[in-house]
Amino acid sequence: MIDSYLKGFEEIASNGGASAPDWARSLRLSAITRFEALGFPTTKNEDWHFTSVAPIAEREFDLLAPPAHGVTAAQLAPFSFGATDWHTLVFVNGRYDAALSSAAALPDGLTVVPLKQAYDELPLLVEQYVGKVAAYEGQTFTALNTAFLDDGAVVHVAQDVEVARPIHLLFVSDASAGAGTAQPHNLIVLDRFAKATVIESYVGIGGGMYFTNVVTEAVVGDGATLTHLKLQRESPKAYHVGTVDVRQARDSHLVSFSFATGAALSRTNIYTELRGEGCGATLNGLYLGDGEQHIDHQTRIEHVEPNCYSREHYKGILDGSAHGVFNGKVFVHPAAQKTDGKQTNNTLLLSEKAQIDTKPQLEIFADDVKCTHGATVGRLDETSLFYMKSRGIDARTARELLTYAFAADVLETIEQVEVREELEAATLRRYTERG
Amino acid sequence: MLVIQNLHATVGDKEILRGIDLTVNAGEVHAVMGPNGSGKSTLAQVLAGHPAYEVTAGSVTYEGQDLLAMDPEVRAQQGIFLAFQYPVEIPGVSNAYFLRAAYNEIRKARGEEEIDPISFADLMDERMKLVEMDPAMLSRSVNTGFSGGEKKRNEILQMAVLEPKLAVLDETDSGLDIDALRIVAHGVNSLKAPDKATIVVTHYQRLLNYIVPDYVHVLANGRIVRSGGKELALELEEKGYDWLLEEAVA
User: Fold this and answer.
1) What is the pTM of this model?
2) What is the CATH classification number for the domain harbouring B9?
């Protein structure tokens, strides 16, 4: 029901977001107009063919009210990876929470601030990029998010600055005061030769129903390297739509990982555009589904210029009646000669009812390129099972270990050690008896 | 230790083993030779319990028990070890974790306590020297990205750690250069003991220069067509298999 959003828009335009600069207010206005015109996509739309958003579209979501009892630091401990010295911004129900955040004493050249503060501190930067990288004209959820532009994180890393510690953007939702939506909007800008790791976490407290619709825009300057981890561990009843849209300049690198295990229905879009020569993009991901979960990943890599590479490996394990979707597009533009692209999607189905729709797509308009793609869907490999059993490992343990190993194979590509170890441990616990 | 009687086995509709009789006693080394397709690898796999093969007739008794009634993991727990011709890559499981899991399963089956990680590390140190393996291999995924020689050495390392009573080496020499072959053979020889036995399946006599067998058996068309001492292997090297196949048909 789009009416509830139109009503919500009026509210935000007249109070919460009233202090926003003129460009933001007019951006919101054109975005809500696009949202109204587009409406929610149906499965007739090719990009949504395997994912029905009816559960979201049929409900009325106001903006999430603050939690009934507030959120404490102790409640966030399970989501902080044991790190005490990271630059962390916490958002509760879509709103920046200064008390829970710890992004003080930042190194020179690093700015990590909530959007409203960025309007004052980085006015030119936000005006230049917000709403410009993630095009909303044809994307309902991006249009909806942009229409509600009000809060989120802005990360800026100045030229030549290498940020040692991860920047953690932690989005916590607690629907104890009623169902609702959070629409955070983030901007990450790395200037020339800058380097940083940004972790976006989406987590739920209390198991209630809510709808997160997030957009992250990222600009990676010449020779810069952005490592971006998106960790979706929402509540089981939640809905999550998240778009990460990256623009890469010459010789820049993007290393992206998307981990998705929460929410009843989730859709994650990871897009990057390689706009200069010599770029590299690595897009990896892991989705773990069970019960009635629906987990959709869409990736798009645009090779615009020559001599760039992209590597993509998404894996998934689906149990119960879980439904996974992977749609990976690689576009090689006519000028993008010598493109080197490799894309793989492997899904392990643990039950008869679990299913995956996988669609790796390669569209090549240049003639001198090296691109491969492939997808596998299957059950545990019998030869591997026999090998383990032949070493004395019982059938059940062998199955558990192989299931874990299937996931660990892609988790081990995460360079950030605390995140890798915690996700590995959680996955081991999930799929093995002994943990 | 092992008594095989009239063993028949099929894969799909195809009968590969057509009446094998073989007795292996503790302390002995038996070589099973034969041309490609003779069934020698099938024999090795059947002993380990590979699910792709169906035993259609005959019996295998191991230490007085019906081996064919045991699941593959039980056979391993009871002391049977197959060194694979093509060791399997398991991305995501580290060699160290895999070996410790296997070692503990086998200890459990023997009624022993699980080993603690520190004692296990000491054991690994010692056993890795035997096959001249780089300790860094322990933290890598099982066989993943290993060279052919590294995979075979890793098989022998597993054997050295698990200390089987009956080791079956399935063409462990295939694809090995002479240095790797010496290392592998040294590993196998070091593990020889009066209460243990080894079956060496090989296409070439070369390996038997290093692992000297007490008995040599020649397999053709799923049957043992000739048995003899180690000199039979030399004869085969000189004359090939054809004369035996002709005799067998005649």
Assistant:
1) 0.86
2) 3.40.50.300
